[in-house]
Automatic annotation (TrEMBL):
It is an enzyme of class 6 (ligase). This is Phosphoribosylaminoimidazole-succinocarboxamide synthase. CDD domains: SAICAR_synt_Sc (cd01414). One of its GO terms (molecular function) is phosphoribosylaminoimidazolesuccinocarboxamide synthase activity. Belongs to the SAICAR synthetase family. HAMAP family: SAICAR_synth (MF_00137). Residues 4-250 form the SAICAR synthetase/ADE2 N-terminal domain. The keyword Nucleotide-binding applies. It comes from the Bacteria. The gene is purC. NCBIfam families: PRK13961.1 (NF010568), purC (TIGR00081). Pathway: Purine metabolism; IMP biosynthesis via de novo pathway; 5-amino-1-(5-phospho-D-ribosyl)imidazole-4-carboxamide from 5-amino-1-(5-phospho-D-ribosyl)imidazole-4-carboxylate: step 1/2.
């Protein structure tokens, strides 16, 4: 079985015939470093949450999922259910665009930092004053270009239009906003605010625009507890912000060799992913 990629979280296998198998592991990364700890059940949570949202949004845009059943995959996978069950998907190969389409609905993260220092973000100047974690008047798309090493680089919508063509860039941004707005409402029914998220797109063998990678997971989004949300303070999260905060507080953000998480931080992180999966999908991973 040919493993193409062993990434920060996912292992990707080429099984031929324009298909891939993607396995979500229990690895966790922060600040572009894979930590020297694994979060039990994390890969299962990511996979089940992503499958839930891919199914929920298939009327908005086609996605790359073929199946989440091991029985539809080569023997290497279905003969090892303890290793692959509930964390593995069969997908279509896509010609991926080298961009992330980040949709932001709340003033937080890098957007908040740049807004504090310049009053703008990615060339956009808000029409009103905002406090930390405040909901934006309308969600915005802030694209970035993917770099093979280091951080992705934010680009302007004008550059995106120059790269992709005006019509295609606007079409993908419109789809990104539709995805965000539809799933924001659904998540709120389950007590979660999706503060921001990112999408990746590609083209299938027929040239059809297709949603790929993962969507609306705790690794690709900021999830906040709706019941605790108040503008002006950093909300309680259901994502890996908890780990980022701990690393930052201890001066370990981006440090190599990668640190191990203390047992209490690791257990709390396991609980966060477990509760996030339960709230969104209704499934308890343990």
């Amino acid at each position: 079985m040919k493993k193409l990629i062993s990434g920060k979280v996912r292992d990707v296998y080429d099984i031929g015939e324009d298909k891939l198998v993607i396995v979500s592991t229990d690895r966790i990364s922060a600040f572009d470093v894979i930590l020297n700890s694994t979060v039990r059940g994390k890969g299962i949570a990511l996979n089940l949450i992503s499958l839930y949202w891919f199914d929920y949004t298939r009327n908005i845009i086609p996605n790359h999922i073929i199946s989440g059943r091991l029985s539809d995959m080569p023997a290497y996978f279905f003969q090892n259910p303890g290793q692959f069950c509930n964390r593995t998907v069969l997908v279509k190969k896509l010609s991926m665009l080298p961009y992330e389409f980040i949709v932001r609905g709340y003033m937080f993260g890098s957007m908040w930092k740049e807004y504090q220092s310049t009053g703008a973000f990615c060339g956009r100047t808000p029409q009103k004053a905002y406090c930390l974690a405040e909901k934006l008047t309308a969600p915005v798309v802030t694209p970035s270009i993917k770099n093979s090493t280091g951080h992705d680089e934010y680009i302007s919508l004008e550059q995106l239009k120059n790269d992709l063509g005006k019509n295609e860039a606007e079409r993908i941004c419109e789809i990104s906003l539709k995805l965000y707005e539809a799933c924001l409402k659904q998540a709120e029914k389950n007590g979660i605010i999706i503060a921001d998220t990112k999408f990746e797109f590609g083209y299938d063998s027929d040239g059809k625009l297709t949603l790929g990678d993962e969507i609306f997971t705790p690794d690709s989004s900021r999830f906040w507890a709706l019941e605790d949300y108040h503008p002006g303070i950093s909300p309680r999260s259901y994502d890996k912000q908890f780990v980022r905060d701990w690393l930052t507080e201890h001066g370990l953000n981006g440090v190599t060799p990668a640190p191990e998480l203390p047992e209490e931080i690791l257990n709390a992180t396991i609980d966060i992913y477990r509760e996030c999966c339960r709230r969104i999908t209704g499934t308890d991973i343990f």
